[in-house]
């Protein structure tokens, strides 16, 4: 499948594949041959090999990611506001906090605290026993007519 192969080229190299690339290139294989063997693009193989020759390591760099905009105290405050008032909105929390953060940050804090949106039921869920009783009530009154 050509589409599947094209998508695979854009995914990250696994640690095992990186080791294979370094091993084959060390053994003197051409970049095109290595790319065909591991089913990756020549560019990915070349980049992996260049990283190996430049840094002596083929592992992906792990970093802390984006810098945090909120402190731990502010994180707890976000969650506490949602617990105290379940109807509070993300924009209200953001305004109260006084820190320039996006609403997705607040949602992420809610998810980390295992908080979910609370929506009222449109109707109470009926058990099979409730359904049976309701049906009996309706059947008993099905022949009634309106008289004044």
TrEMBL record:
Task: Indicate the segments forming the Transposase Tc1-like domain, all copies.
Answer: 75-140
Query: Where does this protein reside within or beyond the cell?
Result: Nucleus
Which Pfam families has this protein been placed in? HTH_Tnp_Tc3_2
Alphabetically, the GO molecular function entries are:
DNA binding
Question: What's an example Gene Ontology biological process for this entry?
Answer: DNA transposition
Q: Which domain of life is it from?
A: Eukaryota
Instruction: Write down any Gene Ontology CC term.
Output: nucleus
> What InterPro entries does the record tag this protein with?
Homeodomain-like_sf, Transposase_Tc1-like
Q: What is this protein called?
A: Transposable element Tcb1 transposase
Native species of this protein?
Answer: Trichonephila clavipes
């Amino acid at each position: 499948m050509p589409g599947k192969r094209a998508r695979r080229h854009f995914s990250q190299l696994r640690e095992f594949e990186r080791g294979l690339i370094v091993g084959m290139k060390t053994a003197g294989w051409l970049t095109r041959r290595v790319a065909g063997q591991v089913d990756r693009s020549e560019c990915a193989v070349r980049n992996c090999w260049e990283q190996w020759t430049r840094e002596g390591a083929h592992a992906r760099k792990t970093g802390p990611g984006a810098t945090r905009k909120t402190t731990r105290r502010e994180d707890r405050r976000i969650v506490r506001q949602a617990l105290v008032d379940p109807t509070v909105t993300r924009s209200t929390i953001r305004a109260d906090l006084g820190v320039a953060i996006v609403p997705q940050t607040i949602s992420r804090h809610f998810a980390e605290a295992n908080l979910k949106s609370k929506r009222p039921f449109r109707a109470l869920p009926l058990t099979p026993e409730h359904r049976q009783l309701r049906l009996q009530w309706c059947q008993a009154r099905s022949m009634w007519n309106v008289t004044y």
